[in-house]
């Protein structure tokens, strides 16, 4: 069986929420307080904060969520939104989470994402979960 859990964080701007809706796959929204208990392996989709700076790039609710060992243990990958105007800090929240949690950074997209981004993420997640299922079957 293929698990396709996606957890995402979105602020009042709804940027990541709108992107996630376009994916057309089941997803769980991380609340503003970060109080959510993951129950199965998941990929995390996050915006990047901080205006081009490393400090503050990962939203605080995401930090609180990942500071729970049981949530971090189920994290399998990360996808990040960002703004290319921030140069090397573009979607850096994904780089930070990937490095700290030792999971793959699967994809980055700008702002609301394009239709190509939506298609790439949808296809990529499908392939990723198939690969995860095959590895766990061994």
TrEMBL record:
It comes from the Bacteria. Belongs to the NrdI family. One of its GO terms (molecular function) is FMN binding. HAMAP family: NrdI. Probably involved in ribonucleotide reductase function. InterPro entries: Flavoprotein-like_sf, RNR_Ib_NrdI_bac, RNR_NrdI. This is Protein NrdI.
């Amino acid at each position: 069986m293929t698990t396709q859990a996606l957890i995402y964080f979105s602020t009042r701007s709804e940027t990541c929420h709108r992107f996630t809706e376009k994916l057309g796959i089941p997803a769980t929204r991380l609340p503003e307080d970060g109080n959510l208990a993951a129950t199965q392996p998941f990929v995390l989709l996050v915006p990047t904060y901080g205006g081009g700076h490393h400090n503050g790039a990962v939203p605080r609710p995401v930090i609180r969520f990942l500071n729970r060992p049981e949530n971090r243990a189920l994290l399998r990958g990360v996808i990040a939104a960002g703004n290319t105007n921030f140069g090397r800090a573009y979607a850096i929240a994904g780089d930070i989470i990937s490095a700290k949690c030792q999971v793959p950074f699967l994809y980055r997209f700008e702002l609301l994402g394009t239709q190509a981004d939506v298609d790439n993420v949808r296809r990529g997640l499908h392939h990723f979960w198939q690969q995860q299922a095959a590895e766990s079957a061994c």
